[in-house]
Write a structure and sequence with these properties.
By secondary structure, the protein is of the alpha/beta class. Helices cover 30% and strands 23% of the residues. The protein binds adenosine-5'-triphosphate (ATP) and magnesium ion.
């Protein structure tokens, strides 16, 4: 049984201006210890998909269809009290903005003590703090800083603390939502190395969310490319790098600088993502696609299985087997 199995997941935001289908018919699974990257432009539904895994899609978001099974249990249908065990202990979430989960008026010690004692009520406070200090040491932060407040740390250190809190209970899955976007490149790489070393040490699975395909290809076993809530391409990182099939993925790859090629031209994808309240008819990418065909303007392409565990949502490949 896979650790995580998502099937036909569809999530809507019911706003006063209309319904935004932020995630539509997404299916994939994740094995223990595996790493998966979710890539897409701003607004493509990455956070909504990630938050669905712990059923924390914010209001007015609603999971309208599909299942999210963790160890076979569908969390979409689980009572709230059972979700507490899933959140934190089974699946930990590193939020896009670290300050949303660090309380500015609480010391770091209180954050760790509360987390550990909520899930393990028999652990005494002193013991919890000892454990927290060991975690800080692993993160490269001096243990005595446990008495400091979140604002006394730099952005990179706050992100380390978030990772420490996420991994303190040794969860089976960590979801890291753009954990490094606000940081400079060197700190970014250090944070991702830290995540990788913790993952190797504890065997956790990881879902890494980023708008940067090069980071994902470097760090993850598999990749899902999201576009306006739809899965556009899904393959292993090696396969996707070597053999990108969707015109959108090809565009993303062409805009990654290659340090071995001097004087290269970086092709950006023309246009911008669609208005989610008014999606184009047919394929939602066609207005930006240089391979657009007649059918693309009227029909939505299915996700097509092109072999080697590679799936692509594009009519160019529709002679393959459709997987809906
Ligand atoms: N609370 C909300 N209320 C209404 N619409 C929302 C809400 N949160 C997200 N959306 C909409 O849902 C869609 C997906 O948003 P989401 O935040 O999941 O994208 P994302 O890929 O994480 O973007 P980013 O890279 O900017 O973080 C967008 O069109 C967004 O405007
Ligand atoms: Mg996001």
């Amino acid at each position: 049984m896979p650790l995580l199995k998502i099937g036909s997941l569809t999530v809507d935001y019911r706003t006063s201006r209309g319904t935004i289908r932020a995630v539509e018919d997404v299916s994939f699974s994740l094995e223990k210890g595996e790493t998966l990257g979710l890539v897409g432009e701003s607004g493509s539904g990455k956070s909504t998909l990630g938050l669905s895994v712990i059923r924390l899609v914010p209001y007015p978001g609603v999971i309208v269809k599909g299942h999210v099974k963790i160890d076979g249990k569908d969390i979409v249908r689980l009572p709230e009290h059972e979700l507490r065990f899933i959140r934190g202990r089974k699946v930990a979430y590193i939020f896009q903005d670290p300050m949303t989960s660090l309380n500015p008026i609480k010391k770091i010690s209180a954050h760790f003590a509360e987390l550990i004692r909520t899930h393990e009520p028999n652990v005494k406070e002193a013991k919890a703090l000892e454990r927290a200090k060991t975690v800080l040491k692993d993160l490269g932060i001096r243990p005595e800083r446990i008495n400091d407040y979140p604002h006394q740390f730099s952005g990179g250190m706050r992100q380390r603390i978030m990772i420490g809190l996420a991994t303190a209970l040794n969860p089976d899955l960590v979801i890291a939502d753009e954990p490094t976007t606000a940081l400079d490149v060197i700190v970014q790489a250090k944070i991702l190395d830290l995540l990788e070393s913790l993952r190797n040490a504890y065997g956790m699975a990881l879902i890494l969310i980023s708008h940067d395909l090069s980071i994902i290809l470097e760090r993850c076993d598999r990749v899902i490319i999201l576009y306006a809530g739809h899965m556009f391409e899904h393959a292993s990182s090696t396969e996707l790098h070597r053999n990108p099939r969707h015109p959108y993925t090809q565009g993303l790859l062409q805009s990654i600088p290659n340090i071995e090629l001097a004087d290269q031209k970086l092709a950006a994808i023309p246009g911008s993502p669609p208005n989610m309240l008014n999606l184009p008819r047919g394929c939602r990418f066609w207005p930006r696609c240089s391979y657009v065909m007649k059918i693309c303007r009227t029909k939505e392409p299915p996700l097509i299985d092109i072999g080697h565990n590679h799936f692509v949502r594009c009519f160019k490949y529709s002679r393959g087997r459709a997987k809906s």
